[in-house]
Design brief:
This protein is an alpha+beta fold and about 230 residues long. It contains four helices and 13 strands. It has two domains: about 5-90, no CATH class; about 110-225, no CATH class. It has a four-stranded mixed beta sheet. Bound molecules: zinc ion (2 copies).
């Protein structure tokens, strides 16, 4: 079983190496293309990123034939339509890209966009029932107050920094096969304890389980103190 690498270690190492990676990417003399078995000289170098910090984590040298030939720009990576960075697809089985409004974006951009949209914030008092029904299409039915957490968007990954101004409150985990809750309080109870609008998101996809996290805005001085 793969486990998540030490994110802090990866971030610290990336911060220390950022300048030399950027220099290497700009170099005119390129090494060999990194595509499997390719003998050609690379023509383009991409800095590569993950969703855990802003520094480049690696570099990818590709020849003209293999630049964009199998993937964007190559297997194991994608290019975020929003931040335009080349991002590694995953470190574990949790993918760092989603389709949002018809675009492929990294989870950082997805989280910024999702939490930044006023229409995604729900009034806790409007929620009367929480269900997990993947076959249903509706996320929240304002008339009945039914919230279908199976339709929560995956905009946060394990250990991903939460956007500024947003904080985690609590979560519950579910078996991804059966939909059975395996840890945490009842989501409806968590929601009814809130004193402000919230957004429920899928904030961790494990091999056999998912986490539904409840997030609110950090608005009061008390919150800021708590977060510090
Ligand atoms: Zn090549
Ligand atoms: Zn992005």
């Amino acid at each position: 079983m793969w486990s998540l690498p030490d994110i802090k270690f990866l971030n610290d190492r990336a911060a220390a190496n950022a300048a030399s990676l950027k220099r290497e990417a700009k170099r005119k003399r390129k090494p060999k293309c990194e595509h499997w078995n390719c003998k050609s000289k690379a023509t383009r170098s991409y800095l590569t990123f993950d969703i855990f910090s802003a520094d480049p984590k690696g570099i990818l040298h590709l020849c003209e034939a293999h630049d964009g030939n199998s993937g964007n720009p190559t297997e194991g990576y994608f290019t975020c339509a929003h931040c335009e960075r080349v991002v590694v697809e995953n470190h574990t089985w949790e993918y760092y890209r989603i389709e949002l409004d018809g675009e492929t974006v990294c989870l950082n951009c997805a989280a910024e966009k999702h939490f930044g949209a006023p229409e995604n914030w729900l009034d806790p008092r409007a929620v009367k029932e929480v269900i997990l029904a993947p076959e249903e299409t509706e996320f929240f039915d304002a008339a009945s107050g039914v919230l279908n957490v199976a339709k929560c968007r995956h905009v946060l990954a394990v250990k991903q920094p939460v956007p500024v101004g947003v904080r985690f409150v609590d979560n519950a985990e579910f078996d991804s096969g059966t939909g059975q809750q395996i840890s945490g309080d009842r989501l409806l109870d968590i929601i009814h304890r809130l004193d402000r609008p919230f957004i429920p998101v899928l904030d961790a996809a494990y091999q056999f389980a998912v986490s539904i996290g409840i997030y609110v805005r950090t608005e009061s001085a008390a919150d800021l103190k708590e977060a510090a």
